[in-house]
Amino acid sequence: xxxxxxxxxxxxxxxxxxxxxxxxxxxxxxxxxxxxxxxxxxxxxxxxxxxxxxxxxxxxxxxxxxxxxxxxxxxxxxxxxxxxxxxxxxxxxxxxxxxxxxxxxxxxxxxxxxxxxxxxxxxxxxxxxxxxxxxxxxxxxxxxxxxxxxxxxxxxxxxxxxxxxxxxxxxxxxxxxxxxxxxxxxxxxxxxxxxxxxxxxxxxxxxxxxxxxxxxxxxxxxxxxxxxxxxxxxxxxxxxxxxxxxxxxxxxxxxxxxxxxxxxxxxxxxxxxxxxxxxxxxxxxxxxxxxxxxxxxxxxxxxxxxxxxxxxxxxxxxxxxxxxxxxxxxxxxxxxxxxxxxxxxxx
Length: 347
Known about the structure:
Shape: globular
Number of helices: 7
Pfam families: Pyr_redox_3
InterPro entries: Auxin_biosynth/cation_transpt (IPR050982), FAD/NAD-bd_sf (IPR036188), Flavin_mOase (IPR000960), NAD(P)-bd_dom_sf (IPR036291)
Protein name: Putative flavoprotein involved in K+ transport
Keywords: Oxidoreductase
GO molecular function, one term: NADP binding
């Protein structure tokens, strides 16, 4: 059986940053990726997706995002950047190799891939991140709704919704951006449990991410503080202006779905063609189940990305893994270095 010192599962932003950190410690990692090309979830986001962080705050360690550092990169620019980044790493990158299971084996692990291949690894980093599994919440009547139900993970463009009545569920950045785009082709409402928490893209001449880094909020271990507050929706003025026209509009979460009808909190009932769920993601770590690394809900038991139950196992790319920026392009490298200091001591 093939033996390696480190296996990284996933070749998205978290996995690539981990491979870079391994190189800096003198290790050539094995990187296993399900897709045919590196890039993680980025190639599957909607066509018009634009980063809310400028290019200067959107790079992985060791290589800045090319071009104007003040611009806001598009989805395809990020995909191209990640694939170029991958090509520069000293890593054994194997695409089209989904990991089916990870099992403990003495002081290390045995990984089995989709084609039945097996590899023994001294350490493992699960870098499939927190955007692998679209979250479908238990909305009242959702299972009986007979219209179209689509998560933003599968949304691409507004054309298929032309002329429809559409409800977007979720008041975060993606929900607002998708609702505003859809309004160019459909009649759209954004349904959320709380009002949209707008925050300015720029303040006192600086992008908000400059302020995050300058004040230390970007890296501070303040998960509980961030989670208690509303989800900030970063806006340069365009999205508030779009909602100001009345299409899209924002409404309190509906109370019931039935057939193709939605009942709003004020008792109003109307026909709806499509629901778009901008309801976030959950980690997809089923392959770790044999190790005992997961809790009853399938979430990782860890502290700062180091498994609390399985020696030699780490994580990179989880939301709020160590800080607000842990699941971002600018933050995964910092967490990768932290995790590998523990998993690869003495290197």
